[in-house]
Design brief:
mainly beta, 6-stranded parallel beta sheet, 21 strands, about 300 residues, globular, single chain, 11-stranded parallel beta sheet
């Protein structure tokens, strides 16, 4: 409830630096083998922060992080600064990096920020980096995906960000400062068959290698970001990049949450942010403490 919450959070040397590190004694990570979801959350008021999630092979319905809000079981959940990827061999469909399923009838809140997903599998592509699904009877559900990065390696990703639903499922999904690069096979940002469930009009400043980033206000399409080193899974824009750096919106103090840091806890500036999980510089004052304002039928709560 609003008093009792769950935090799965890595700090200090146990927290990753925004770049894959699976060495012995390295940052904390969770790994699942075939036919498993790496981390599935059924509990409300849960925050996952600063860890690595690895899905080692997938035979269908395999996800790195699954926020399962079926039948009001879980709501008001946060994923912050998560590195996630599939590896090994993949067969079957419906494999996702981050999967948010919302079917709460009385309102639910989900936030993903500063998260990175890439596909390192050796066979088939992954269906989507980030997937949001609204099911029958869901009502007043809210999801924010902010400053998240998707990168498709050789085998690729079918869609970067995908939203869909079933029946009367309804939700507001807002995408801001998100980036899709690399081998995207179909479409970077895609809305499925449910007509009541689309990216909200507040979505903005998203970037893609195909044309779909430009469909958002202040969005950028047909653009290639210069990263520091994708071969080492470092998806921070290089100092020489002129596409993502400074092209993002300042999301501090928009009413949902106060935050001004990137995946490494580097401070984001006042004004224009860098699109994606990394800010272009680590200089500046310490990040602002997080203060959450969750909205639902029960009102607001503060952790």
């Amino acid at each position: 409830d609003t008093t009792n919450k769950i935090y799965l959070k890595a700090t200090g040397s146990a927290r990753h630096s925004g770049v894959k590190n699976t060495g012995i004694g390295g940052p904390y990570r969770l790994r699942s083998d075939s036919n498993n979801k790496t981390l599935q959350v059924f509990v409300s008021y849960t925050t996952i922060e600063g860890i690595q999630l690895i899905c080692n092979g997938a035979n269908g319905f395999e996800y790195c992080l699954f926020f399962n809000t079926t039948n009001n079981v879980a709501q008001d959940v946060i994923a912050d600064s998560i590195l996630a990827w599939h590896q090994g061999s993949v067969s079957g469909g419906s494999n996702y990096g981050f999967y948010v399923r919302q079917e709460n009838t009385d309102g639910g809140y989900a936030m993903l920020r500063n998260c990175i997903y890439w596909n390192s599998t050796t066979s088939n592509p992954i269906d989507a980096g980030f997937f949001h699904y609204a099911h029958f009877g869901s009502n007043n559900n809210v999801c924010f995906m902010d400053n998240c990065t998707v990168y498709g390696e050789t085998t690729g990703i079918v869609r970067g960000f995908l939203i869909d639903g079933q029946g009367s499922g309804d939700a507001s999904v807002t995408l801001r400062n998100c980036m899709v690069q690399g081998n995207i096979i179909s479409q970077s940002f895609y809305t499925g068959s449910n007509p009541t469930h689309t990216f909200s009009t507040a979505s903005k400043n998203n970037l893609s290698g195909d044309s779909y980033g430009a469909t958002f206000p202040n969005g950028i399409g047909n653009a290639t970001v210069i990263f520091i080193d994708t071969s080492s899974y470092n998806y921070q824009p290089s100092e020489s990049d002129s596409t993502a750096i400074g092209a993002g919106a300042d999301l501090y103090n928009l009413g949902e949450v106060l935050w001004n840091y990137d995946i490494r806890l580097a401070t984001r500036p006042s004004g224009s942010w860098t699109i994606g999980a990394f800010e272009s510089t680590s200089s500046g004052a310490p990040p602002i403490a997080q203060i959450y304002f969750f909205r639902g039928s029960a009102g607001f709560f503060f952790p």
